[in-house]
Amino acid sequence: MSTEHGPIYAKMLPALQSKMNEFHLYGYTTVTVEDIWIYCIRKIWRKKDVTQMGSHQIMNDILQILPAAFMTYTQIEAQRNSDWFSDLNSADLQILLNPKKDVENEQ
């Protein structure tokens, strides 16, 4: 993903590394530069054309990321992208999705 907007990414790498170091200082040691960049692209700039933004605005947006906002975003994305029913077989899904039919059959 770091290749998306490659020249801009390369130019903003020092700010991204600084923000990553800040996250590591707060104990979020698994956060990478690419994670922060993806967050910016998908969340902060989702309705903006990054190529038309000024360098100062991009850098300001990166440096203003709050750890709480970033972690909330990553948790929501993890839940959104997870397959909650991967461990269930079709019978379990039927019970889950049609609980009244199962209760009627037992009586």
How would you summarize this macromolecular structure in one to three sentences?
The chain is mostly helical and 107 residues long. Helix content is 67%, strand content 0%.
Characterise this structure:
The chain has 107 residues and is an all-alpha fold. It has helices at residues 6-25, 33-44, 55-63, 67-81, 90-97, 99-106. α1 packs across α2 (33-44) and α1 packs parallel to α3. The radius of gyration is 21 Å and the shape is elongated. The model has no long low-confidence stretch (mean pLDDT 85).
Secondary structure layout plus pairing:
Elements lengths: L5 H20 L7 H12 L10 H9 L3 H15 L8 H8 L1 H8 L1
Helix pairs in contact: 1-2, 1-3
* Helix-strand category: mainly alpha
- Poorly predicted residue ranges: none
- Average pLDDT value? 85
What series of H and E elements makes up the topology? HHHHHH
Largest sheet: none
Number of helices: 6
What is the total tally of β strands?
0
Query: How far from one another are the termini?
Result: 55 Å
Coarse morphology: elongated
Helix content: 55-70%
Strand content: under 5%
Give the radius of gyration.
Answer: 21 Å
